[in-house]
Amino acid sequence: MNTSINKQANGLGGILKFVIKHNTIFIFLLLVIFSAFISDVFFTETNLSNLLKQVSGIGVVSIAMLIVILTGGIDLSVGSLVALLAVTFAILINVVILPVAILLTIVLGFALGSFSGYLVAYQKMAPFIATLALMTIARGLGFIYSKGSPVTFNSPGGSFMSDFANNSTLFVPNIAIVFFIIVALAAVMLKYNVFGRLVIAMGSNEEASRLSGIKVSKYKFLVYAISGSLAAVAAIITASRTNLGSPNMGFSWELDAIAAVVIGGASLNGGKGNAVNTLMGVLILGLIGNILNLLNVPSYPQQVVKGAIIILAVLFQKIESKK
């Protein structure tokens, strides 16, 4: 009889460990089931399409944040970069052909991210301070270049991007497809590419990585440059969805991105996290907003719920670590 009890205890313990280890997926599934129960329109094509469109921009930014956090850093500038680069893209698309506008916007994002990377990697400035400075500069430049008003697309290229961003392929919004492709590329890079493995190694133990011959400063610089480039992609798809670039875009996205990464199980100390779990974190935040909108709950309580989910996710991480 004792053997039977022990087997049952071990079985329950194994299930509990599995749930804790994959808590992000279980939270996501519970939210989906809850959403289906509380609203008849949740599983409609219109609602799901809107949900995916809403999370795509912040999702791309969250992947950028994940890559930075894996090194033990932080990038507070991503939201403001989205605003500046959205304004830039709107201005460019009205004066040059579409491919050039896209390329120049991404190049500018890379350059701005490189600025943070240089300060962090080579001037040994704290990531919080360096990216906080860029956050302030980028938001200010966005207002200066736009003169405080949204810049509307007024060109054939703008019409094309607007149509692309607001249409779907096989019932999946095109901008969500862009997001999913970036998630897939990030997942492959972090698991199978040398660069991704070095990023995780640096976050796990930077000093050991340096002593083993890894050029830590070089890779840290590139991480912030990649973050800036992904902010440019987020700016392009977000501006295209609304047919304009506004200096108010991306407001507090850096906080939502950090939340998505933490909910996805990444450690703010670096060295732990992956793109698929960050995708789950993005979708969880999107689902929370969607559920509360369907229930006609004002936006302010949504922040309380998001905060509670973050605390829950961190507690699960601590429990998993102890196990």
Question: Outline of this structure?
Answer:
This protein has 323 residues and is mainly α. Helix content is 78%, strand content 2%.
Summarize this structure as a short list of keywords or feature phrases.
mainly alpha; ABC transporter involved in vitamin B12 uptake, BtuC; two-stranded antiparallel ribbon
SSE layout and pairing:
Blueprint: H1 2-21, H2 23-38, H3 45-70, H4 78-93, H5 98-121, H6 127-146, E1 151-152, H7 156-166, E2 168-169, E3 172-173, H8 174-192, H9 194-204, H10 206-211, H11 216-242, E4 244-245, H12 253-263, H13 275-294, H14 299-322
Antiparallel strand pairs: 1-4, 2-3
Helix pairs in contact: 2-13, 3-8, 3-11, 3-12, 3-13, 4-5, 4-6, 4-11, 5-6, 5-11, 7-11, 8-9, 9-11, 12-13, 12-14, 13-14
Sequence of strands across the biggest β-sheet: 1-4
Give the low-confidence spans. Answer: none
| Morphology | globular
Please state the CA-atom Rg, rounded to the nearest Å: 21 Å
- Helix vs. strand class: mainly alpha
| Cα separation of the termini | 27 Å
- CATH architecture annotation: Orthogonal Bundle
Order of SSEs, N→C? HHHHHHEHEEHHHHEHHH
Number of strands: 4
Q: Strand share of the residues? A: under 5%
Largest sheet: 2 strands, antiparallel
Continuous helix count:
14
User: Which class in CATH terms?
Assistant: Mainly Alpha
| Helix content percent band | over 70%
CATH level-3 fold name? ABC transporter involved in vitamin B12 uptake, BtuC
Q: How many structurally independent domains? A: 1
What's the average pLDDT?
A: 89
